[in-house]
Amino acid sequence: MLSRLLRNDEPSVYSQVAWEDIADEALPRPPLREGWATSRLKVSTRVPLAQAYFDQGLSLLHLGWGPEARRAFAEAARLDPELAMAWWGLALSRGPGARFVAARAEAMARALALSEGLPDVEQRYIIAASLLAEKGPANGRHAFVREMESLIDCYPEDAEAKLLLAGFLADGYEPDGRPGQGQPYAQVMLRELLRTHPDHAGVHYAWVCAMLPSPRPEVARESARRLTQLVPGTSTAMLAAGRLLGRLGELDEAHRVLASAVESDDAYLAGESLPVEFAPCAELAMRLLSQGCAEAGQYTEAQAWARRLRQRVESAGGEPQALLFAATTLVSAHLRFGFFRAAADVPLELEGDLSPAERGLRDGVRSYTKGINALDLGRLSEVERACDALVVLQSTLSERRRADGRRLCPRDVARVVEVAEQELRGALEARRGEGGRAEATLTRAGRMERRLRLAGPAAFSRPARETLARIRLRDEREQKALELARALVEERPGCGHFHLLLAEARVATGERGPAVQDFATFLERWRDADSHLPELRRARTYVAGQGRLLRLVHNADAPFPVPSDFRPREKVSC
For the chain, does the N or the C end have fewer beta carbons within 10 angstroms? Predict the structure, then answer.
């Protein structure tokens, strides 16, 4: 989708993408892929193969695969050097960041020079794109939108123009759930395109990406499934489909789709003898697979995907940024199940000169995991020191300049470190009996967590709002804990940890019947979970008793993630 290609909205494992340092004319020729070209836009060329490669490039542009789209457009330009629209495609697919301003401008200049005498529709496409190339996505936004609206008004049957505009305007959602500027307008166009072009993979991809962060992702469920049928070999489409299905709680289906994205990338690399780092989605898909396994209680499998990711990035040369993304994936898997010592022992030795952002992320993970492990052991002075180290680190990173392109940005790392510090400090305050301060700190951490940019590292700390809910249970604020647990389940209905939290909150409020149902739902979510996990034993004990006995095992030395509401209570008859 155009907004993603121009704004770098996706997290980046590697600091560079395929062929970004190679000039357009020197790009290797791609094969003409069967089934990849679902877009059709007639352009002014007498070379049929150039038309075919242009359509392939346009299709991949719509599917968010910028480097491969660029290769296709470059081949179209090579086959027909007079094809202005091929240079138009090269300008749009060049990638985000100031470092490519000159390359985009050069391609756009070629398109403009060749556009004289072309049909009006092609000239309008080129003029609109030239405004983006000249001013950038932010400054050229209004002018680009106005030119595309004019094009669509003159050619109302042009689905590709509508899709390009919708993909540019689909601006996501604010942390409070309000749509971004242009999002409702984009949705109107996409709904119409879904009706008129039900077999267009780019339309379904744009709809999935637009609705993924929305409060109602379920409306794009069928589009996610259609993508797996229309373009099963395109990993970017599989990644989008898998993410949406995972958000909807359909973890088994999401796992299959994300695994197919990894397989598609591996087949793509093998077919063209390309290095591992040229895969567009495999590394991010593996991170999501580890997360999905953790939500399903599959601790061993979550570790396996994280370690497989580590091996993959090591085979690509062990770039520090990529190694850090792999390490935080494994850290998150350990933390999700409360294995704090294992999280602190994840190796973070990196070779070479590290950027300030890389060094900051490494040190932040080290301080946090040491702090959370110390909290588990009751060494509160060590926890305080870890929090202070995170504060200093966050302040230092915030003063650094923003990074360009796909390199790890110090300010993004600063935000993640701040969330970690606030979550750890809130847990420390709760342990010290400072309930009011802990509530305020963790509420602030939850708000910051929801504002984290997609581009950059994922939060490596425990979910702040889940920690807050458990503290509310410990402080006998059961109703508030129940409200928060419900909200978490609504956001991630497939996450077994959140269903367990909800069930435990029901126990605390004395809702025996709903608690049994929620424990049963948790057990269904964790039907393939590792059998040794204590959460399973607690849930089965409660369900077996059908809520008649509200006394469950509680390890007083491990306040998280074991819920504090499991304390002695009298028997209650049904």
Answer: C
